[in-house]
Design a protein that fits this description.
The structure is a single chain. By secondary structure, the protein is of the alpha+beta class. It has a domain of 117 residues. It contains four helices and three strands. Strand 2 and strand 3 form a beta hairpin. The termini are far apart.
């Protein structure tokens, strides 16, 4: 009889433990402490399909410097976006082609560097907001900016770079084949 009560108690404890472990964790929904940082409502949106929007912000002593620094940060974000896009596209291209050659990887890295350092044409200023803020060391200007880069421009530069590198790679492979042929002829 005592064994049955003990087993029943053990089963009840096990059920309670299982129910407790399956319950949701309410602590995960608690917001972190601190003041929320302001950003404009349009920040980090992609409102137009024909453009890639990039964003930058800066705080400077002068309003003009603040705008220029925010613009430079947005362009830097654009270069990073293009580099990630190019890396992804080239990786897919290599996987589809089944290429696993160190020379191809070196050429791939070259394409990425060329595209990410390319000049963007047709860049439009989307939205901009500048606020005068009081900071401990004086008044500063904080600027948020949205730049729009035409997707067609990005795609065209990417395709041109890939075609150029593909031609260089084909020339390299052809010269390798001729070198192998020369070595074979020298042996005879």
């Amino acid at each position: 009889m005592k064994l049955n009560k003990m087993m029943l108690l053990l089963v009840l404890v096990a059920v309670v433990v299982m129910i407790a472990s399956c319950s949701s964790n309410k602590k995960a929904n608690i917001k972190p402490q601190g003041e929320e940082v302001y950003r404009p409502a349009w920040w980090a949106t992609q409102p137009e399909q024909d453009y890639v929007c990039t964003y930058g912000q800066a705080t400077k002593v002068s309003e003009n410097l603040s705008v220029e620094a925010a613009r430079a940060n947005a362009l830097q974000e654009a270069a990073q976006y293009v580099e990630v896009l190019v890396n992804s596209m080239l990786k897919n291209y290599e996987e589809e082609a089944g290429v696993k050659d160190p020379q191809v990887l070196a050429l791939t890295q070259n394409v990425v560097k060329a595209v990410s350092s390319a000049k963007f044409t047709g860049v439009l200023m989307g939205k901009i907001e500048t606020r005068k803020v009081n900071e401990p060391d004086g008044v500063r200007y904080k600027t948020w900016i949205q730049l729009k880069i035409p997707k067609d421009e990005i795609n065209r530069k990417l395709a041109d770079s890939i075609r150029n590198e593909e031609a260089l790679y084909n020339q390299f492979k052809a010269s390798q084949a001729f070198q192998e042929l020369d070595k074979a002829v020298e042996k005879y």
